[in-house]
């Protein structure tokens, strides 16, 4: 399958000398949801801005739907919908006129039925005649999504789409993203919310200091880089870990009733069976045993901190 977005050796250096992007290469498949994670200033917005034709790259190339973003700008840009971070909306226009105008900018014929359905999906139909200045911040964010989708793009960029919105609205947007993907739209989002990527993304890319550290299938990433913990509840609390268990690098809880063992599930011999036997030989009685997997947040933090 041909990628719908192909980024090759992309770099951006500003006149100040700041290297915002460093030799980034990435292929994005049709219909996938890709989450780009990274701290502030990592280069996420710069990358999106180059693809959307807002910022010029210093080196490298990008194609969208097979169109070069420089040579075939209009064709490439017509395939893209962009929801920016900032709430850039006029104050005195109505929701309906805003979407109609945005659709017209891309040369699309009027389609009231499509826009009506879009506003209903965004829970904005009852606000269609309201002026933008009357809307809450969350509703304005929905209008931005409506603008981005008004010309029926096949690729949607969401730059921090749920920044500053409440949990309920965030979940509504996740549901909308899933529906869009089911309709065939490719979605690339940047986010600070790790749970957002964990909830809805197919693949996760981690950017730090302008470098794309990795791009992996979400579950493969968590399996490959994630650690697991064996949490052992004891029938009776202990003051210290018995010396016969000192080789296992166990952690004892403050209450003394829980032991935690961290291991790599990729290893053939995880040591779990031997540990349980050793605990029994040490005379400790087990009350319960459970395992937990590293979260995407823990993996993200370890990747970013590992890069000098």
Summarize the structure in words.
By secondary structure, this protein is α/β, with parallel strands linked by helices. It has two domains: 5-223, 3-Layer(aba) Sandwich (Rossmann fold); 228-294, Alpha-Beta Plaits, CATH 3.30.70. The chain contains ten helices and 14 strands. It has a six-stranded mixed sheet with strand order 6-7-8-3-9-10, with helices on both faces. The protein has a four-stranded antiparallel sheet with strand order 2-1-4-5. It has a four-stranded antiparallel sheet with strand order 12-13-11-14, covered by helices on one side. A hairpin with a 2-residue loop joins strand 4 (59-64) and strand 5 (67-68). Helix 3 (95-105) runs parallel beside helix 5 (137-149). The two termini are 36 Å apart.
CATH topology of the largest domain: Rossmann fold
Low-confidence stretches: none
Task: Tally the helices.
Answer: 10
Looking at this structure, what is the CATH superfamily of the largest domain? P-loop containing nucleotide triphosphate hydrolases
What percent of residues adopt helix (DSSP H or I)? Answer: 25-40%
The largest sheet has its strands arranged as: 6-7-8-3-9-10
Estimate the global geometry from the Cα principal axes: elongated
Integer-rounded radius of gyration: 25 Å
Q: What is the rounded distance between the termini? A: 36 Å
Structural class: alpha/beta
Q: What is the beta-strand fraction? A: 25-35%
What's the order of the H and E elements?
Answer: EEEHEEHEHHHEHEHEEHEEEHEH
Can you give the mean pLDDT? 85
- From the coordinates shown, what is the CATH architecture of the largest domain? 3-Layer(aba) Sandwich
> Class of the largest domain, according to the CATH hierarchy?
Alpha Beta
Number of domains: 2
């Amino acid at each position: 399958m041909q990628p719908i977005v192909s980024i090759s050796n992309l770099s951006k250096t500003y006149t100040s000398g700041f290297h915002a992007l460093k030799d980034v290469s990435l292929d994005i498949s049709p219909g996938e949801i890709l989450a780009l994670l990274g701290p502030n200033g990592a280069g996420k917005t710069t990358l999106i801005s180059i693809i959307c034709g807002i910022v010029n790259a210093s080196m490298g190339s990008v194609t969208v739907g097979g169109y070069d973003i420089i040579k075939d700008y209009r064709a490439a840009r017509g395939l893209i919908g962009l929801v920016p971070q900032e709430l850039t909306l006029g104050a005195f226009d109505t929701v309906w006129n805003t979407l109609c105008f945005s659709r017209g900018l891309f040369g699309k014929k009027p389609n009231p039925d499509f826009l009506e359905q879009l506003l209903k999906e965004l829970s904005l139909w009852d606000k269609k005649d309201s002026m933008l200045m009357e809307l809450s911040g969350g509703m304005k964010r929905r209008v931005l999504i409506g603008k981005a989708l008004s010309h029926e793009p096949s690729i949607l960029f969401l730059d921090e789409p749920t920044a500053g919105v409440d949990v309920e609205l965030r979940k509504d947007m996740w549901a909308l993203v899933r529906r869009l993907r089911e309709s065939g739209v490719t979605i690339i989002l940047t986010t600070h919310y790790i749970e957002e990527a964990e909830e809805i993304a197919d693949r996760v890319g981690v950017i730090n200091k302008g470098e794309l550290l990795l791009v992996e299938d979400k579950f493969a990433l968590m399996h490959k880089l994630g650690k697991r913990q064996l949490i052992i509840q004891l029938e009776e609390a202990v003051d210290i870990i018995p010396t016969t268990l000192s080789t296992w690098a166990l952690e004892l809880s403050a209450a003394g009733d829980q032991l935690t063992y961290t291991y790599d599930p990729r290893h053939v011999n995880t040591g779990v069976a031997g540990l349980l036997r050793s605990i029994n030989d040490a005379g400790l009685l087990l009350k319960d045993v459970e395992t937990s997997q590293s979260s995407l947040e823990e993996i993200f933090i370890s990747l970013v901190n590992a890069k000098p």
